[in-house]
Inverse folding.
């Protein structure tokens, strides 16, 4: 409001005519005073407006801006999805930017000629993933089963998992516990059987699975409760886990442990065989210690010094499933783990029917060894996406996870060791898990530049401190 408009409004109360009819000093002084008060009033108002103004927000960093923008709807980029399962969207440039911030390519490119050092962001990020989405799914399933107060025989429910490259069996045992809901399957009991009560030693594990907490079954039967070999407790699922191990010394220890604990009668199936692209016989290291990692068919082919190789039966994944699993076409494989020291892609290529029609959740290793060195991760991700309807992620820990499908970055094709987790789209049984994985991906993006998986940022909590 101007001084002129203010004085005009004052004049409307009977003084407006005095501006042109009186020029006495007294009247002039009165007008001057009024104008002065008007100017002071306006100045006061402007000061108040200035003091109460809202400062413009501080411009966000580029990474934090992309973290915020990545949460905006992006319907134009949607690949579309079936009625069930999480919608998979093409990552925006902003989302790709923040993924590259969190999984920087610098170390990967710097150490590309020495991949055995594992000096790459997606190696750091995925070395010992916690797969909390799996725990959440099966804890919920077991709660629902216990509420129904039915056994499998009275209501139905089953679980099947396959571990291609079972090693010491710790992950397979914990998965059997998770899938069945049965506390009889206990890692401490398994370790005791594998070591024959401590008489023999097991080879070291990268993630020290034997010492990590096992799947939580806090409700229902107490851990360690005596259960007959053929007994089915309320709230449990009929479960079958196939523990496939090609190394002779390790396979024998696995079989002996399953027999000792009578788990072979409860669905824990140990098979001494190799899984690859085709059927046949293959030389495989006999092994010097139980549970030796990082030894496989490639060591025999390269004629490595000190490696004693013996012939082992070899099946394609499709052949194995046809031979050892129920013939029912509707029999689902809830969990497939592939850990075969560089032959993972070959296993998938030999399991097209199984992946397309049966598998709901898949984990495999990317590597620089074996056939992987001549194969591209981009090709496997495309195959799993377009042919088998899987969405794949880099699985991390502490709830961090990065989608690979439709969020591809070129340096992912650099060959380093890493873990990959994939969930089937459009399947009701894993719809909640697919949505949870995508939700965790969005939450990971929200962390922006506060989360960086490079060598310097790993810190003391890296891999839960489990590599020592």
């Amino acid at each position: 409001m101007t001084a002129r408009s203010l004085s005009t409004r004052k004049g409307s109360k009977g003084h407006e005519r005095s501006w042109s009819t009186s020029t006495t000093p007294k009247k002039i002084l009165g007008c001057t005073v009024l104008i002065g008060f008007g100017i002071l009033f306006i100045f006061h108002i402007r000061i108040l407006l200035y003091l109460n103004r809202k400062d413009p927000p501080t411009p966000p960093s580029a990474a934090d801006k992309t973290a915020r923008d990545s949460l905006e709807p992006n319907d134009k980029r949607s690949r579309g999805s079936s009625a069930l399962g999480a919608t998979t969207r093409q990552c925006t440039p902003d989302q790709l930017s923040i993924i590259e911030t969190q999984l920087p390519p610098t170390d990967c490119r710097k150490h590309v000629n020495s991949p055995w050092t594992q000096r790459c962001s997606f190696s750091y990020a995925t070395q010992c993933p916690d797969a909390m989405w799996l725990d959440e799914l099966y804890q919920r399933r077991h709660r629902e089963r216990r509420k129904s107060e039915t056994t499998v025989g009275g209501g139905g429910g089953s679980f099947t998992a396959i571990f291609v490259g079972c090693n010491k069996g710790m992950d397979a045992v914990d998965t059997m516990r998770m899938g069945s809901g049965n506390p009889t399957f206990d890692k401490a009991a398994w370790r005791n059987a594998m070591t024959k009560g401590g008489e023999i030693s097991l080879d070291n594990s990268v993630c020290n699975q034997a010492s990590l907490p096992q799947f939580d079954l806090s409700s229902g039967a107490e851990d360690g409760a005596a259960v007959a070999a053929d007994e089915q407790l309320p709230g449990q699922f009929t479960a079958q886990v196939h523990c496939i191990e090609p190394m002779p010394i390790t396979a024998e220890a696995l079989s002996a442990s399953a027999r000792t604990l009578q788990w072979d009668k409860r669905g824990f199936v140990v098979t001494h065989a190799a899984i690859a692209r085709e059927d046949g016989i293959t030389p495989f290291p006999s092994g010097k210690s139980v549970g030796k990692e990082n030894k496989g068919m490639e060591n025999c082919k390269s004629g490595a010094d000190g490696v004693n190789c013996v012939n082992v039966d070899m099946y394609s994944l499709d052949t194995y499933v046809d031979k050892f699993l129920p013939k029912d076409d509707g029999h689902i494989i809830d969990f497939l783990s592939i850990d075969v020291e560089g032959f993972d892609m070959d296993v998938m290529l030999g399991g097209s029917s199984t992946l397309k029609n049966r598998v709901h959740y898949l984990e495999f290793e990317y590597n620089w060894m074996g056939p992987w060195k001549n194969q591209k991760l981009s090709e496997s991700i495309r195959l799993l996406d377009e042919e088998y309807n899987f969405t794949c992620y880099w699985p991390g820990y502490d709830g961090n996870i990065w989608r690979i499908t439709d969020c591809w970055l070129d340096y992912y094709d650099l060959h380093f060791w890493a873990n990959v987790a994939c969930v089937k789209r459009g399947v009701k049984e894993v719809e909640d898990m697919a949505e949870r994985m995508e939700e965790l991906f969005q939450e990971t993006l929200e962390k922006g530049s506060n989360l960086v998986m490079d060598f310097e940022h790993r810190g003391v909590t890296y891999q839960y401190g489990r590599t020592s």
